[in-house]
Predict the 3D structure of the following.
Amino acid sequence: MADYLAGIWNARYFWIHLSLSDLRSRWRRSFFGILWTVIQPLGMTLLLALVFGRIFKTEITEYAPYILSGMVVWEFVTASAIGGSLSFVQADAYIKQCHHPLAIYTLRTVLTNLMVLILASLSLIGWVLIAMPQHFGWTWLAALSIYPIVALIAWPLATLLAYIATRFRDLPHALGLVFQAMWFVSPIYFEAKVFRGGDLHGLVDYNPIYHMLEILRAPLLRGEWPTAVNYAYCLGAIAILTSLAWIVGRQAEKKIIFYL
Amino acid sequence: MKNNHILLEGVDLYYSSVAFKERSLKSLLGGLFSVNRTKPEIHDVHALKNINLEIKAGERVGLLGHNGAGKSTFLKMLAGLYPISNGIRVVEGTVRSLFDLSLGFEPDASGRENILYRGLLLGLSPTFMREIEDEVVAFADLGEFIDYPIKTYSAGMQVRLAFAISTAVGGDVLLLDEVIGAGDANFMAKAKQRITNLIEQSEILILASHDFGALTSLCKRGLVFHHGELIFDGAIQDSVQYYKKVNGLE
């Protein structure tokens, strides 16, 4: 494993570059360019908050950042998992020419999405600073830890899925469905109390997605520190996904080139 | 101490047949429920059969063989791209391979940007690439087109740029697969010169080609492949003779 990580480190210029060029091409020839990353979730949030705010009779200034925080993180996770599952197929020209650890291609996708997430979360921070300035404080430092945590969850997840999706090319379609289902049963747009109200505590308490989002939500939306349980669930998810990716990768890594 | 060499013992390589059979979850699930239709049987392709070989520093080796004999597979196996199924493979030294040159261009990026991308793909640092950029641009000789997106290039221009980048840096072990033959006559002369320089810098050269002239002038030792087997290993002239005999060319 140390050799594998060293290979990733040696190729660092390459994947950093690929990732930056992904970002450049994303914003190329668009009027607002980089601003779209901020505008899009903001607009969507306003719309949803107006509707859901009425349905659930919640204060919109507080509910909107809840939706926004769920939206930007969830967008990152799905984009990394579904986009990441196609990473090897997309990079086939590189894979057939040069021998690098395959995980650099999923790292590229995750890194690109992480930079989008960081930009998009600026709108969240702006909103909270204006609407709920009382929550600003030291706890916000903990919110920063969301970035390495989601990246370390998404990278092995994307790598695992990419090994499988190269073999079964219709996996991304199936994933779309799976993630939609996960969205419905997790407190991403819907508040945790809605699930608790329906006596569905399990969907909150044992849901890693909830704990992952709490790392961002506890400091920003309530001015509290995330709990140790929140971190434990995240680290557990990282450990499980990394081991799975490692086990599958030991078999699949070398054979991927035959499937491209 | 550098001790560049290649050692192969009992190397087998199979292309697994699963790769070109069912490729989707749908067909996998479908296969479980469908009645057994008779399909043409597809087996694993045994692309390299029990290869035993040692190549020492300073050797110039030519590969001969009919199409599909395993020359390219052999080179890609040496480069570490294809996994071997059995045996031992030892390759010491930095490997530089020139296979499909025009692979891996970003069509929306300019020629100049693509020089950087390709260099980074080969594991070079951005600072080093900036140093050699001017030299590559001068060699490709594309004029103002170097700042245009690659998608505006003609096929010949792409090959020229790819060749210029790929041959800018050498390695200890140089693997060539039929790359000589790019661009117009003017460029060909330059390209030959550059390949020759690259070969001189390298410790080990392995060249796969159907051009007997190039093989005999560049190489000392010859390997003849036939249906995945290494059937002859000796001096290049003898190898050419043997290859002709086996394939009924004389």
Notes: Residues 35-259 of chain A form one domain. Chain A has a mean pLDDT of 89.
